[in-house]
Amino acid sequence: xxxxxxxxxxxxxNSPIGILNVAATENGICRLDFVDKPxxxxxxxxxxxxxxxxxxxxxxxxxxxxxxxxxxxxxxxRKQFTVKLFIEGTPxxxxxxxxxxxxxxxxxxxxxxxxxxxxxxKAVRAVANANGANPVSIVIPCHRVIGSNGQLTGYGGGLWxxxxxxxxxxxxxx
Length: 174
Hints:
Layout: E1 7-13, E2 20-25, E3 28-34, H1 40-50, E4 54-57, H2 61-74, H3 91-100, E5 109-110, H4 111-117, H5 124-132, E6 145-146, H6 159-171
Parallel strand pairs: 1-4, 5-6
Antiparallel strand pairs: 1-2, 2-3
Helix pairs in contact: 4-5
């Protein structure tokens, strides 16, 4: 079902790990991707088309709120995001994304531990795929999931960004 007359505001935000594309409606943040992620624009176009929405390069109050929260996060002052989200996915994806938000700041878990947390211990690959489909990087902290061997694996923004985010959080635990 299409929702008509929806406006999606899009803004680029500078961060210590590159430029971020932020998209939001009046209902919340719907995308937060790295500009250099090849699929970022395609996902937003699909999201907009499904809702018969128009996209404008403009700010809105929710993007402004996210900008403040991201600045605080990168300064080590914010441990949890409170900005409203407007994300859609399958029930399974939403369950996985909710579990991601339960991983404490500065902590990590393995894909196996995450699959157990969502009640599907044998669905490690499906959980990893749902993490990869996370529409709101950083805010939904998929960077906190690592391999069972403790190694950094699987981050759409690049492993160097995952490493940066984990080190930022570890350095600001107090």
